[in-house]
Structure formats: C-alpha cells, structure tokens
Design a protein that fits this description.
The complex is a heterodimer of chains A (110) and B (117). Chain A is an all-beta fold and 110 residues long. Chain A is 0% helix and 45% strand. Chain B is an all-beta fold and 117 residues long. Chain B has no helices and eleven strands. In chain B, the strands form two sheets. In chain B, strands 2, 4, 5, 6, 9, 10 and 11 form a seven-stranded mixed beta sheet that branches. Chain B has a four-stranded antiparallel beta sheet with strand order 1-3-8-7, with no helix packed on it. The termini of chain B are far apart. Classes of the chains: A mainly beta (110), B mainly beta (117). At the A-B interface, β3, β7 and β8 of A face β5 of B.
C-alpha cells in the first residue's frame, strides 16, 4: 500500500475534464515538489508535470497540476481516447529520504 | 536528441546476480542525476536509487541497500544497476530515468529481469 494515495480508477467521456488526486503528508507532498507521470500500456512513463504545476516542453496545456497542503491534483481537459493510461504522482519524502510514487490511477475515456 | 538505451531482458535463477545497463546520449552526462525505478508485473512504480553523476555518490531507497549497487562509467556515459542474491520478488521491469528526484524527464525503454528457477 502506497504512502501517497490515488484513486485506483477514474473515467470520463471524450472532450470532458477529469481530475486525479494524490494525497500525502507533511513529510512528502506538504513540503516537497510533486511530479505527475503518464504511462501508456507497455511503455515507459512520461513526465507530464514537475514542480507541482510546470509542464515540460511538448506536453500540451490540456494537462495541469496543482498542490494544496498535503494533496496534489492532476487535471486533464478535452479528454481524448489516447489519454487512456495509468497516471502516477511522485514526490520526495524528507523523512524517508526517498522518492515516493502513488499507487497509480487508471484513466478510462468512455 | 536525448536517449537512454538500456540492456536487454535477463532470465536468472534465484541467488544469481544481474547487471542492468543504461547508456545515455545527446546531453552532457554529468549535468543530470540518474535514477533507477522498477515496476513489478501489473504493479506501480517503485523508486530504487539515484546517483549524483558528478561525484558518483548513490542514494538508495529503504529496502534496496545491500543487494543493489548503482555505479557509473562516465567515460562511456553509462550507468549500471547490479542486483545480487536475486529473489523471485525482484522480477520486474527496471527503468533508468534522468533528472533530479522526483522530476524524471527522460526514461530508458526498460529492462525486464525475470527471476525463476
């Protein structure tokens, strides 16, 4: 069981908006940056968001990140069937001196 | 362009050792940290370690000390992860990933390590 808690699955229709939450504590999300990753089936993860809300070059602005207290949220607008993937949050944990990942959220675009 | 190319799949017996390699290209190798992340079949991501490519100093997650050794060969821009005394629960895809934890901006293609008798 992961220290960072994500919903196992979310779903929405094409064109709609979805959010994925990631809940932690003061030793991790509360005092460190959060990143978000997309993992398409059978491929390596891709960085979507870093430093809570920054997008690497090439990542469309349909993807956004935010953080409040000990929780972070990934938002995806204008859902496409190609967005169906597993999404992971990640952050540093100052007590463990380690990177933690959430358990992952499977996004289904109905 | 930035590329991280990993060595091929491995099938090992319990108790054996394995080394997974990751060759970087397209950027100054010592300008970025390197990490290893593993993913057991059907499971989530698990961070193993990171290494300071300037100093060669590794830092391991709890549970990955002792049997796991993260090393560098800066002359060929390559990192290695050696795992000894392999156990069935080490079966996973191992990814190298560039960047300051937890922002990993480039990933290798992954190396499947299977531990089975």
């Amino acid at each position: 069981q992961s220290v960072l808690t994500q919903p196992p699955s979310v779903s929405a229709a094409p064109g709609q908006r979805v959010t994925i939450s990631c809940s932690g504590s003061s030793s991790n999300i509360g005092n460190n940056y959060v990143s978000w990753y997309q993992q398409l089936p059978g491929t390596a993860p891709t960085l979507l968001i870093y430093d809570n809300n920054k997008r690497p070059s090439g990542i469309p602005d349909r993807f956004s990140g935010s953080k409040s207290g000990t929780s972070a949220t990934l938002g995806i607008t204008g859902l496409q069937t190609g967005d169906e993937a597993d999404y992971y949050c990640g952050t540093w944990d100052s007590s463990l001196s380690a990177v933690l990942f959430g358990g992952g959220t499977k996004l289904t675009v109905l | 362009q930035v590329q991280l190319v990993q060595s091929g799949s491995e099938l090992k017996k319990p108790g054996a050792s394995v080394t997974v390699s990751c060759k970087a290209s397209g950027y100054p190798f010592t300008s970025y940290a390197m990490n290893w992340v593993r993913q057991a079949p059907g499971q989530g991501l698990e961070w193993v370690a990171w290494i300071n490519t300037k100093t060669g100093t590794p830092t391991y997650a709890q549970g990955f000390t002792g049997r796991f050794v993260f090393s560098l060969d800066t002359s060929v821009s390559t990192t290695h992860l050696q795992i000894s005394s392999l156990k069935a629960e080490d079966t996973a895809v191992y990814y190298c990933a560039r960047g300051r934890p937890p922002a990993f901006d480039y990933w290798g293609q992954g190396t499947l390590v299977t531990v089975s008798s």
